[in-house]
Structure formats: structure tokens, C-alpha cells
Write a structure and sequence with these properties.
This protein is α/β, with parallel strands linked by helices. The protein has helices at about 25-30, 50-65, 70-75, 95-110, 135-140, 165-170, 180-190, 220-230, 235-240, and strands spanning about 10, 125-130, 150-155, 175-180, 200-205. A 5-stranded parallel sheet has the order 1-5-2-4-3. α7 runs parallel beside α8 (about 220-230).
Length: about 240
């Protein structure tokens, strides 16, 4: 998608090279492609936006056994809201995340200067969502190259940071990129500390696997807060409104 978009996009990270053939089913694509010798699910980057939408829907249904078909449909992330990054050819390790962000911005016609921060405090142009505080801390270190005196790469997670302190920090800080866990970001949105009117993209750390080889979508305790966040009224219209990606 090369047209300029005014609404946010949902994007994913992975480690892989473009495939010669695509799997037609997201479940089948991931079932045999987990790299047991690394902490990366190599299947995710091979999926286009249609397969990624199917992957997210499958995980939502898996952990939403108490939800009705109508409720499941309401939580659906449309394929048009997901950026197809399957042609990006670098290894999608954490160290390459800055290059990945730059690639996404260039392809979508959105703000290419990622070191720029919107003028309003607490209003990032990019959110990076991951399942654990330690992982968020690691990603924030990698993304510090985009930090400047007027733009802060903000750590938005719960570990060692009290909610009140996080609220005070966000309300007074110009943020270009926020990295955090869904639960903490939900708290900041509910307290009206974090603002999303300048948001252009959401990066979901989908490919990262923990020590038990589980991604953010593979655990109920991380998948459900993530879907709750993506369906909040402050965020969902940013990627489902008319003219969105």
C-alpha cells in the first residue's frame, strides 16, 4: 500500500524471507514453521495481510470460547487494516526493528521521519505492542536511535513503573514511539493520559517466542488484553474507518 493513510495500521514483525509459495491456511502455515533453535516464529513474515487476519481470528476464537459469533465478529481485525510486509527481506530480529519501521513508513506514505514527535504530549505516531515488560525494555533500547531532545521513545509497561508515575510521565512528554504491553497501554488510555489522534501505525511483536515457544497470540493472558486494546473505541476507528489501510 503506497498511498498516504491518515489512520493507523496494524503491522507485525517476524524473521523470514519472502516465500516462493504461500500457505492457504494460517494455522497450517504456523504449525510447522516454528524455529525451535531460536526465539522467532519464522512463519509470520511469510503471511500476507489476508493470512494474518485469519491467524488473528483463529487465536481470538480459540481463547474466546465464551463469545457469541456476533461478539467474535465484532473483534475481527480486517485484512485491509493489516500491512503486508512479507516482501521485506531482512532478518526480522529485534536489532532490525528500526529498519522495519522505516520500511513500513516508506511503503505506506506516512511520516518517514520517525524521530519526529507530534506536538501534543502523550500522542505517539507509533505504538509497539509486546507481551512482556522485559521484551518491551529490550525493544525500547533498540529504538532509541529515533529519540531526540524533542522526541521520547517511551517505555509503557508495568514492571517497576507505577501507574501514577506512568500517567504523569505520558501527560507531560512528547512521544514519537511508545513501546509497551497491552495491559499498561489500556490503563493509560482509560486515564486519558495516552492520546491516539496522531497514531499512524501499530506494530505487534507477533513473531517473538518466549522460552516455552509461545507468542503474544498463543497465551490467553496476553492475547485477550491485546484484543481488548485493539477493540477499544480510542483505537479501533483508527484502522477500520473509511479510507483506512
Amino acid at each position: 500500500m503506497k498511498r498516504k493513510r491518515e489512520s493507523a495500521e496494524v503491522e507485525t514483525t517476524a524473521r523470514t524471507k519472502p516465500p516462493k509459495h504461500r500457505e492457504h491456511n494460517a494455522e497450517g502455515a504456523t504449525a510447522h514453521a516454528r524455529d525451535t533453535d531460536s526465539d522467532i516464529n519464522t512463519a509470520i513474515g511469510k503471511m500476507d495481510n489476508r493470512l494474518l487476519a485469519d491467524y488473528v481470528a483463529q487465536r481470538t476464537k480459540r481463547f474466546g470460547e465464551d463469545l457469541s459469533p456476533v461478539e467474535l465478529e465484532d473483534m475481527h481485525v480486517p485484512e485491509g487494516a493489516i500491512f503486508d510486509s512479507s516482501e521485506w527481506q531482512q532478518d526480522r530480529l529485534a536489532t532490525n526493528l528500526p529498519d522495519f519501521l522505516t520500511y513500513c513508513a516508506q511503503q505506506n506514505g506516512t511520516s518517514i521521519d520517525l524521530s519526529r514527535a507530534p506536538k501534543k504530549p502523550g500522542s505517539p505516531h507509533t505504538l509497539v505492542l509486546t507481551g512482556a515488560a522485559l521484551r518491551a525494555a529490550a525493544l525500547s533500547r533498540v529504538l532509541r536511535k529515533f529519540q531526540s531532545k524533542e522526541a521520547t521513545v517511551a517505555k509503557l509497561f508495568a514492571k517497576h513503573i507505577k501507574v501514577k508515575d506512568a500517567i504523569d510521565f505520558v501527560k507531560k512528554t512528547r512521544i514519537n514511539i511508545g513501546i509497551g504491553t497491552p495491559t499498561r497501554i489500556i490503563d493509560l488510555l482509560k486515564e486519558r493520559a495516552l492520546r491516539l489522534e496522531d497514531l499512524e501505525r501499530v506494530i505487534i511483536d507477533t513473531s517473538f517466542l518466549d522460552r516455552k515457544k509461545r507468542s503474544i497470540f498463543d497465551m490467553k493472558e496476553t492475547q485477550q488484553p491485546l484484543m481488548q486494546l485493539l477493540n477499544m473505541e480510542e483505537l479501533k476507528p483508527r484502522y477500520t474507518s473509511t479510507g483506512s489501510p
